[in-house]
């Protein structure tokens, strides 16, 4: 299943691996209304797009759907699902901050499939930009 973009006015599928982004936050939704948030690196071993080299290889992001065993089992059982990229980030750290905040804010809903927040992140220099992204996503998703 191919990724779709949550906000097609801001993002285009071709933007993902054009060299401006290191990771993205995604949401997988199922027909029963359940959903899961995650983060995926776009390039192998790259946490900051500034360290991207011509020899850097892409990760398996196009075919990826989750590290969650529960989500994997649901997908493997044949349930209909959609993979949406919510936002792309120049660093994995920024993506992990937004993922954690989304899980903390929306994770208490009964249809959320996330079981834990598993990250340690350093608050970055563009806090106000990251906060704006988070506000936009929370307005759309809650």
From TrEMBL:
InterPro entries, alphabetized: SegE-like_GIY-YIG (IPR045566)
Domain Putative endonuclease SegE-like GIY-YIG per the UniProt entry, residue ranges: 3-104
Name of the featured protein: Putative endonuclease SegE-like GIY-YIG domain-containing protein
Organism this protein belongs to: Escherichia marmotae
Superkingdom of source: Bacteria
């Amino acid at each position: 299943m191919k990724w779709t973009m949550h906000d097609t006015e801001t993002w285009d599928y071709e933007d993902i691996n054009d060299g401006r982004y290191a990771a993205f936050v995604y949401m997988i939704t199922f027909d029963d209304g359940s959903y899961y948030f995650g983060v995926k690196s776009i390039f192998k071993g790259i946490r900051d797009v500034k360290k991207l080299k011509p020899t850097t290889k892409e990760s398996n992001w196009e075919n990826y759907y989750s590290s969650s065993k529960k989500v994997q089992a649901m997908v493997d059982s044949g349930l209909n699902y959609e993979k949406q990229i919510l936002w792309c980030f120049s660093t994995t750290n920024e993506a992990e901050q937004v993922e954690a905040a989304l899980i903390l804010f929306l994770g208490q809903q009964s249809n959320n499939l996330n079981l834990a927040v598993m990250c340690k992140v350093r608050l970055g220099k563009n806090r106000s930009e990251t906060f704006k992204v988070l506000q936009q996503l929370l307005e759309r998703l809650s």
